[in-house]
Write a structure and sequence with these properties.
The protein has helices at 28-32, 34-48, 64-74, 129-140, 159-162, and strands at 12-15, 23-26, 55-59, 77-83, 91-98, 101-108, 117-125, 144-153, 168-173. By secondary structure, it is α/β, with parallel strands linked by helices. The protein has a single domain, classed as Rossmann fold, CATH 3.40.50.2020. The strands form two sheets. Strands 5-6-4-3-7-8-9 form a seven-stranded mixed beta sheet, sandwiched between helices. Strand 1 (12-15) and strand 2 (23-26) form a beta hairpin.
């Protein structure tokens, strides 16, 4: 799909952040550009408009930036996945093993209705570990994953392979 703006031009890499050897993908330039941000949100809306989606789930924290306007514009439920200890009601919880530290992720037990068709939204697909944990939470909550949506996919990290046969969509592939 062709976009009116080269979205890849709005993603910069910060080397050795947050730890030496890691590369941080900074989407701030995209967020600073109303035209680029709107083009990204519009592309997600166009993709999911007629797919029978019941819920959009954003992963902490930058996934929220795209999940919220997508859910709003589709007129569907918005739910969030957060780091453990930040959701006030009963939750499901899973371990998430990151290359720079372990953490637990949670979703409220009442975040989605059982059988809901869900789009999971994240900003970046790299190794896929956070996405796998999020998929596990959605399954625990009874959701059916329609697709995993990303602003950017870093192909050399092979995250898509780690996700198995789950459907994956990325606006930008680098």
């Amino acid at each position: 799909m062709a976009y009116p703006i080269d979205l890849a031009a709005y993603v910069r890499t910060i080397p050795d952040y947050p730890i030496p050897g890691a590369n941080y993908s900074d989407i701030s330039p995209l967020l600073h550009s109303p035209q680029a941000f709107q083009a990204a949100v519009d592309a997600f809306v166009e993709r999911y408009r007629n797919r029978g989606i019941d819920a959009v789930i954003g992963v902490e924290s930058r996934g929220y930036l795209f999940a919220a306007p997508l859910a709003y514009l589709l007129g569907v439920n918005l739910s969030i996945i957060r780091t453990a200890g930040r959701l006030p009601a009963a939750t499901y919880e899973v371990e998430n093993y990151l290359h720079f530290g372990d953490e637990k992720l949670q979703i409220h037990r009442d975040a989605i209705r059982r059988g809901s068709r869900v789009v999971l939204v994240e900003d970046i697909l790299a190794t896929g570990t956070t996405t796998l944990a999020a998929c596990e939470l959605i399954n625990m909550a009874g959701g059916q994953i329609e697709e995993l949506a990303f602003l950017v996919e870093f192909k050399d990290h092979k995250g898509r392979m780690a996700l198995g046969d789950r459907p994956v969509f990325a606006l930008v592939e680098v």
